[in-house]
Design brief:
The protein is α+β, with helices and mostly antiparallel strands and 151 residues long. Helix content is 20%, strand content 42%. It is an enzyme of class 3 (hydrolase).
Length: 151
């Protein structure tokens, strides 16, 4: 919280992973039932944005990835007033760890076409999911060097 009692934005990362015309998503529990999201989560103390994206993708989907680009940076205020800043990355899948347990609350990882994602619009976790998808589909790609962990 800030001094004025306004919640500080939560910094999150998300990853668009493409393979054979499909994109990696996770189905996760929410108070409203199962929702669809890119592999995503919160930045932890001491880690870079890129490290967080790789870690969250592995923890939520059991896929090891290599980041290729920064796609965009997004802001959103949820209906409950919580603010989020999401940093979206693009990545290549490297290896699937099939025996790896997924994070608590993650029901399953799934590969969807963009058309299938659009058909599930009502189940997207937040507008951030579609904003990142739209930018990735439009070809938004920036060098990873645009993100830095100052030492």
């Amino acid at each position: 919280m800030t001094a004025a009692g306004v919640p500080r934005p939560r910094v999150t990362v998300a990853t668009v992973v493409a393979r054979d015309g499909r994109l990696l998503f996770v189905e996760e529990e929410s108070p409203d039932g199962y929702v669809i999201n890119q592999p995503a989560g919160h930045l932890e103390a001491g880690e870079s944005l890129a490290e967080a994206a790789v870690r969250e993708t592995l923890e939520e989907s059991a896929w090891r990835v290599r980041l290729t680009h920064l796609v965009g940076i997004y802001q959103w205020r949820a209906p409950n007033g919580q603010a989020f800043v999401r940093v979206g990355f693009a990545a290549q899948p490297l290896a699937h760890e099939s025996g790896r347990p997924l994070d608590a609350g993650i029901h399953r990882a799934l590969w969807l076409t963009p058309t299938e994602v659009r058909a599930e619009r009502a189940r997207l976790r937040s507008p951030l999911v579609e904003a990142l998808l739209d930018d990735w589909l439009a070809g938004s790609r920036f060098p990873l060097s645009m993100t830095h962990l100052a030492k």
